[in-house]
Amino acid sequence: MPTKILYVEDEAALGYIVKDALIARGYEVQLVEDGSEVIAACEAMQPDICLLDVMLPNVDGFSIGQQLRQKYPSLPIIFLTAKNETADVLKGFQSGGNDYIRKPFSLEELIVRIENLLSLQIASKRSGKVTLLEVGLYNFYPQKMELHFHKKVRKLTYRETELLKALVQQKNEVIQKNELLIEIWGDDTISNARSMDVYITKLRSYLTDDPTVQLLTLRGVGYRFVIG
After folding, report:
1. How far apart are CA 182 and CA 167, in angstroms?
2. What sign has the CA pseudo-torsion 161, 29, 67, 193?
3. Contact at 8 Å (CB) between 147 and 138?
4. What is the secondary structure of 39-72 as a DSSP string?
5. What is the structure's pLDDT at 90?
6. Which pLDDT belongs to residue 130?
7. Which one-letter DSSP state was computed for residue 131?
8. Residue 123 pLDDT
9. CA proximity to 128, closest of 148, 142, 147
10. Beta carbons within 8 Å of 170's beta carbon, 6+ residues apart
């Protein structure tokens, strides 16, 4: 069965161009132009992934992202927007986004990001027993995509999970930034490097309850994930 994509875009010309191009590549695509119609469309279609514009009529994309993440915790969401400030990128991830692409974008880049997120989802579902990784006082469950601190449970996105897992596997070692980018994003372009910077910031904020856990940035090199 073809991958089902819910595509939310209020620029009609762009929306139909991208929709037709994705259909030509074998995807099943439903285009929605009004923010107020997204939740109902998602319930009816049950998509494999959602492409979500930020600037929408009636309900903005960030608000919709939050609603979708609550109703469909495992649904991959890619924000599509002309906004390019770091604060906007961070808000996108905080609103439930798994990835973030700035306009204008190439169809090839969009498809690579779609397939990457879907591959991460499939790998997670196929995983066998639930693995527990201890991260200081935290319990990290990669298959469940959860980070536990006592009774507090934080649900992680696919990419947050993959990034944290890679950091834990190389704890207390120098981790090259470009190697992480190639492993998790597929390439080390500048846009992907900026995206990873946002994820690193998010992971730091998740790990503040245990001061013995530190995610250090080594300027010009990469990172060092210190535990204990």
Report:
1. 14
2. positive
3. yes
4. HHHHHHH--SEEEEESS-SSS-HHHHHHHHHHH-
5. 73
6. 59
7. P
8. 63
9. 142
10. 225
pLDDT at 127: 53
pLDDT confidence of residue 44: 94
Residue 135, beta-bridge partner list: 138
Q: In terms of Cα–Cα distance, which of 51, 39, 36 is closest to 103? A: 51
Task: Determine the Cα–Cα distance for residues 93 and 179; give it in Å rounded to an integer.
Answer: 22
Eight-class DSSP state of 130: P
Identify whether the C-beta of residue 75 lies closer than 8 Å to the C-beta of residue 49. Answer: yes
> Tokens in use for 138?
């935290």
Mean pLDDT by 10 residues, the chain (228 residues): 93 93 96 93 94 89 89 87 70 80 88 86 59 90 87 87 91 92 85 89 94 93 91
Measure CA 99 to chain center: 4
Distance CA 41, CA 28 (A): 14
Contacts for 19 with CB less than 8 Å, ≥ 6 apart? 7, 29, 31
